[in-house]
Design brief:
The chain is α+β, with helices and mostly antiparallel strands. Helices cover 50% and strands 25% of the residues. The protein contains 5 helices and 6 strands; from the N terminus they run H-E-E-H-H-E-H-E-E-E-H. The chain has helices at residues 2-39, 58-64, 75-78, 96-102, 146-179; strands at 43-48, 53-56, 81-82, 106-114, 120-132, 135-145. The chain has a 6-stranded antiparallel β-sheet with strand order 2-1-6-5-4-3. A hairpin with a 4-residue loop joins strand 1 and strand 2 (53-56). The radius of gyration is 26 Å and the shape is globular. The termini are far apart.
Amino acid sequence: LIPVSFAIAREYKIKEVWVKDLEKQIATSKNQEDALLKNIEDAVLVLNKKFEIMYLNQAVTNLFKYTNHALGKNFFNLFLIKDKEGRPVEPFNMPFEQTINSKIESYIENIQIASENQGYTRVDLKILPVIEGGTALGLVLVIKDLSAKTFVQDKEKNVAVIRAFEPLSDVLTARRLHRL
C-alpha cells in the first residue's frame, strides 16, 4: 500500500512540476509575443470575425493616429481604403471574409488607407487568418508603410551611388597628392 501511494505522489509531483514549467513557457511566449507586436516596425491589427479591432500596436498609432479608443470598433468604420489609383474600395471588395473562410493568407499591394485625420498613406497589406483548433477566429493585418519603404530604398540607392564613386574619389585624391 505504501509503495503505491508513494508512486502516485511521485507521479503527481512530476505532473505538478511539468504544469509549472508549461505555465512559465506560456507566460514567456505571451511576453515575447507582446514584445514582438509592440516593437515590430509594421502596423499590426488583430480583428475578430466581425472585423472589430481587438489589438493594435504602436506602429498603428504612429502611422494612422489611432489609439486604444479604436479597440472594439469595426475596422471598416475607421479605416477608409482606396486602390492604387485613388478609387474608394468597399469593404465587401476586401478579401477579409475569404481569408477567414479559406484560412489562407491574402496580400494586397499598393493600396491607400486613411488615418484618423483622413490623410491617406500608401501601404501593402498582408491578411493572415488566426486559426485555433482548425477554426478561424479572426485576422491579423500586417500593414507595411510604402512611404517609409520608398525613403529607405532611395537612401540605399544614394549610398550605392556614393560607393560607386568612392574608387574614383580615391584616384582623384591620389592624383592631387602626387602633384604635391
